[in-house]
Amino acid sequence: MEQLVRNKMPESEPRGFAPATDIDTGVIPMRASGRGVMQVAVDETRRNAALMAPIKARAESLDFYYGQLKALKNINMEIREKQVTALIGPSGCGKTTFLRCFNRMHDLTPGTRYEGRIMLLPEDINLVARNIDPIEVRMRIGMVFQKPNPFPKSIFENVAYGLRIRGVRSQIRIQEEVEKALRGAALWDEVKDRLSSSALSLSGGQQQRLCIARALATSPEMLLFDEPTSALDPIATARIEELIASLREQVTVLIVTHNMQQAARVSDYTAFMYLGDLIEFDETTRIFTNPGQKATEDYITGRYG
Amino acid sequence: MSTEGLSHHISSRYNADLERLRSSVLEMGGLVERQLTQAIGGITEPDARVMVRVAQEELRVNQLERSIDEDCSRILATRGPTASDLRLIITILKTITDLERIGDEGEKVAGIAARLATRERPHNRYRELRNLGELVTGMVHDTLDAFARYDTRLALEVLRRDRTVDEEYEAIHRQNITFMMEDPRSIRRALDVMWVVRSMERIGDHAKNICEYLIYLVLGKDVRHTKIEEIERELLAPRG
Question: Please, which contacts does A153-157 make with residues 24 or more away whose CB atoms are closer than 8 Å?
Answer without folding.
Answer: A153/A198, A153/A199, A154/A195, A154/A196, A154/A197, A154/A198, A154/A199, A155/A191, A155/A194, A155/A195, A155/A196, A155/A197, A155/A198, A155/A199, A155/A202, A155/A210, A156/A195, A156/A196, A157/A199
